[in-house]
What we know:
six-stranded parallel beta sheet
Amino acid sequence: MSDVFVHPSAHVDAGAILGDGTRVWHGAHVMPGARIGRDCVVGQGCFVGGTVVVGDGCRIQNHVSLYDGVRLEDGVFVGPSAVFTNVRRPRARFARRDRFEVTLVKEGATIGANATLRCGITVGVGAFVAAGAVVTRDVADFVVVAGNPARPCGYACRCGEAIVAPEFRCACGRIYHPAPTGGLTESSS
């Protein structure tokens, strides 16, 4: 690990892998086996489970727990106190480690503060989960969801700005087209 910063109050267990330029802040705990990419920020009071994989350039804000089964691709933003689960029907007296489900957050997506994601779902490329949303289903690429349960309410550009139908053009110049999956695809031209 070169050019990695771990705050003295944080605990990174032996066997965890941290990429160059990654910073782990106050009171965070990264378990053995966790893999965190380059240039990431793991905020105060975060927990990262042993099978978690975090891509490059991710920002995990304060008090987020990434439990076993969570996968964040490159450039994902996770807002403060967002909640990830890994078992659909947990019970204190019945072990469910063999039932952990994968939750995948794809490249460039945003998870807002205090959002809750049920395990076993996929949040698409560039998707935007609003603060406080409760996500119980997959979110398509570049779709904005909000509410409890979370429902689609718009589209977001790769840069984070709103995209308005029917032009599907962002002020930054990117152009999108409706996808058969219900989300958008970014134009190559």
